[in-house]
Amino acid sequence: MNRKTGLVAFVLLLGSGNLSSFAGEHPGTISQVTVFQDRAEIVRTLETTLDHGIQAVTVTGLPPHIDRNSVRINASGPAGLKIAGLDITRKYHSETQKETIRDLEIRLQEAQDRLKTLENEALLVKSQQEFFQSIRAMAARGAQEELSGKPVSVADYQAAATYAFDGLAGSLSREQTNEIARRGIQKEITKLQNELRQLQSQNTRESLEAGLSFLVTLKGLYQIELSYQLHGASWYPVYDARFDPGTEKLEWTYGANVVQRTGEDWKGVKIILSTARPELGAGAPELNPWVLGIREPVVYEKKERARMHSGYDKAADEEMAGEGLAMETSAVPPAAAQPMESIVASFGSSLHFEIPNRWSIPGDGTLKRVTISTHDFTTATSYRSTPKLSPHAYLTAKVINGSDRPFLPGEVRSFNGTEYVGSSRIEVIVPGEEFDLALGTDDRIKVEREETERHRESAGLFQDKVRYRFGYRIKLENRLDHDAFLTLRDQVPVSHDERIGILDLKTNPKSSAPDSQGLIEWDLTLKPDEKRDVILSFIVEYPDKMDVFGL
Predict the structure, then answer these.
(1) Looking at the structure, do residues 410 and 464 belong to the same domain, yes or no?
(2) Span 6-36, pLDDT tens digits
(3) For residue 541, what is the enclosing H or E element?
(4) I need a surface site. Which of 17, 88, 257, 405 has the fewest CB within 10 A?
(5) Which of 521, 446, 432 lies closest to 476, judged by CA?
(6) Are 388 and 519 in the same domain?
(7) Angstrom distance (rounded) from CA 253 to CA 241
(8) 107 and 55, same structural domain?
(9) Residues near 388 by Cβ (< 8 Å), separated by ≥ 6?
(10) How many domains are contained in the chain?
(11) What is the pLDDT of residues 139-182, one digit of tens each?
């Protein structure tokens, strides 16, 4: 139907007198949620039969804090449907809702009263138990008195003992029954408190209603979608990396933690995670004029006028000075606005992850973890060790992102076999990019560093210099049944004074040259059961009278 035909149909409907027929109220069902970094877009769907003419449908129970500018309508069904209008109105609590809250408060108070009664009864039971314990003790003392020849009959002893034991058994039984009842009431109280808190957190005193108007030319069943955005929801990436030491395969789980406090529960909904940034706006920010001006000496003029009054008024002088200062400050040119940057700007567009299956996420801030995708990667493993800081070899896997999607910045939980070895963090990793994954220590690679030399001696022609000799031995052993590739790291001092020299650096086997931070590395291959020593030595020389720190 073109625009002209639609206008004719609209005029004919007006002439027929079939105006604004009410098709009913529908809360709709939340069917899809798109979660951004600071908000969510909600899609509510409903089905209703619309007659021909102008039909009005009201969608009820919308949160009161939605972004009204983001509300959109979509409808499908028999041909000839036109969206005629949208009106958002605010609605306050109905009496039924108020009664529901009052009923919850009454039930909660009754449950708390019952709990208090049981707590008082528990105190009474404890007192009874103490009484029966005292009777039992008296009966025992009576038996001793009987044995000593005092006139205590056996019947008296038996009666006292029976009374004490029966009473104590009954009291213990009542205590157990009381405890079971108290646990049940406590669960009831917790449930009622949660229900009441949820109603209060949802700001149920008010809600919004969306009045929808449609121009219908063909009666039938229509599907209507109402979408809107609101704050209070976010997500961030998380990863699980499970390394299989037998196959050296890596199972990579790309997940996300989703949390929302929008005030409405999402039950069995389709979840889409988006990296779009709607809070940045649709266009680039505009620069305001950068204005330059001349400051006028207004402060001194106002002070002079103040002094012209009879007497010198210090308060007036300070007030004038303050006014002048404020006027001077306002003349400072405004700073240019700085654009915000997005962590995914380098990809050129936002990413959308449609999560398989349907999920339920409560609106009370409960953290929900969802899975975006899983991947199996082939790795190349090696070891790294810095024995000066830690006498361990750390297994590292080189991994290539072989998926078709980037991995966003987030925390990685690493598992070596079934053992959790710790967490680390990755930055953006694009498809095809290689990255390192730490997999914890491996005790089958033995590393031990010992100091073999450290002494001071005089040097120079007239012994006006001091030399410190340092020597270290690093003992390595491979107890694996295969070759181990090891990157070993150590360091030599770095001098920021030309009078302090680092001399006669020797390494065996040969290491890399020290970098600007004094770090050196060995790339070694250890055969199975191989033992090897790595030697490092150097000299630090400086003038005798110089006080050197760091040695």
Answers:
(1) no
(2) 433 333 343 334 455 776 888 899 999 999 9
(3) strand 531-543
(4) 17
(5) 446
(6) no
(7) 6
(8) no
(9) 449, 490, 491
(10) 4
(11) 655 555 544 455 555 566 566 666 666 666 777 778 888 888 88
